[in-house]
Amino acid sequence: MSSVRIIELSKHFGSVAAVDQLSLEVQSGELVALLGPSGCGKTTTMRMIAGLLAPTHGDIRFDGRSVLHVPAERRGAVMVFQKHLLFPHMNVGDNVGFGLKMRGVAQREIAHRVSAMLEMVQLPGYEKRRAHELSGGQQQRVALARALIIEPTVLLLDEPLANLDANLRLEMRKLIRELQQSLHITTLFVTHDQEEAVMLADRVALLVDGHLQQFAAPRLFYEQPANMTVARFFRNENFLPGEKVGSTIKTAIGPLSLTQADRWPDGPTVVTLRPEQIVITEADGVNVVDAIVTQALYMGTFQQLTVSLGNVVWRVHAPTDCCVQTGNAIRLHLSPTQLWCLPTADLHKEAIQTFDCSPAGTENVRIATKAT
Amino acid sequence: MYRLVRSFALILLVIGVLLPLVPQLLWSFAFGWFFPALLPQRWELQAWRYLFSTSSRVGEALLTSVALAVVVVMLTVLIGLPAGRALGLHQFRGKRLVNWLMTAPLFVPTLVVIMGIHILFIRYGLADQFLGVVLVHLIPALPYFVLVISSVFANYATELEDTARTLGAGPLRTLRYVTLPLIFPGLLVAMLFTFLVSWSQYITTVLIGGGRVVTLPMVLFPFISAANHANAAAVSIVFILPALLILALTSRTLSAGADAIGGLGRL
Asked: Of A27, A349, A31, nearest to A191 (Cα)?
């Protein structure tokens, strides 16, 4: 295992920049998720780290040493793809032992280590099975075993859970996390599913349009989004433009007070608060604003209210026992400690679909927005 | 019902392929066989004895034919494998043109271009040479090979090669342990086609070989035109034997591991 550092990495296909000036540092033994809509440079980045694709510009360093001139077979960065996982012409044992065979390890030692590895991924005694006899989840585990057995410097997982059904996905998530923790393998995985990224990763790197939007611990994407794009990706479209003066923000619906005022400079800003952080209240007080409910949707565990705050539309997650109906006037408490300010840069950008760059990605994001 | 159809199809296939060989076999042992007799009036080994005599040149022609076909297959693999891979896997500018040029020999009669080629080959000293015949056999052989290989690669997952690379296999070992095993059934079919195309060339061999390079069809045709049925039948059998032999030897591999056979389906 080793640390991975990407410095101003770019990849151009013709005139299109799939990855543009991406810089990222993954610590030794860390599990990092590369999150973003499909087709936005995540897999391209992985292929460059693995050595399967030469970058147009920039550098890739393992433990501080540039690996740009090291061919894929000697980099020790193992990539597990989303589809076509196993060599169909080999049995499970030969699949798992492939990397050791390439390293010239003796037959008997290979057999020994393969059986130990298969035990680790909970498939003991599967050596003689053929790839097509296994279920999707089992194939995934074999592919993981095949990667882990050579103790890779970096493990690269490309949408490892995308082709599994919901139950299996949870199980695999757990397995990946456990294996990664017990073996301390530096791992980078690609996903378009923010939930998966948040649950699995130590840190998440959000890539949109080939640009790194934010690279931080999962909870910060919810509580302290770097910009509106990040907030939108994490299903928060509650934005209210205003002007910050000291610890107060002047907005169209009146002044709002802010506890962590020193974090931001004075001037124009966009205030945000996540739908689940907003509380419906009847009392008067600081940061209590009036709103009209324009839609109330029952979502099972909560009610999703669409409310108008002056001339902007916000979403609020209310408890299901709170009987609010369309057309009701309600009061909302926007906690001064949780209010967050964003740069105004992309205030006029359209909603989440617009920054998506592939048909497949559009699909995913549409599903994501529907689920909101 | 399904089994009935299957056995019926099998019987039809056997009749269609093997029945025409029966009169050939009979003819090769016949000495005089006239209408309306159902079987030859006299049996003789004369045709076979002639076949094995040195004056018939059949043995020599057989060797030449085999050598030609083998060299043609090897060269076709060298040229056609990368070409078929590129056409099957990648999109590139001018792909349609390359595709069209590759398959053109299937539609353009060889006779149309062979004269021009002959003149060129005379100029470069390739006429009347084994090498010249090899080159001219490549023209009809390559399209079949490239068509089969490109359809194999159209259903091919390059991820498997990438996986092998990241697991520590260099380009050569990736070819040996991953690529070749994956495309093997398709490659075998394509090589078979190529062998048979070269094997059954007549006009091209005659013209470019100029009578110096003598193959089996060149021994066979004079007997047919001279209506020497017994000799023609005997040479025919020698001519068809390698094809049947190769098919019998490879049919097992083809039906067992035909997953990667691409557009051809299961054989």
From this structure: A31
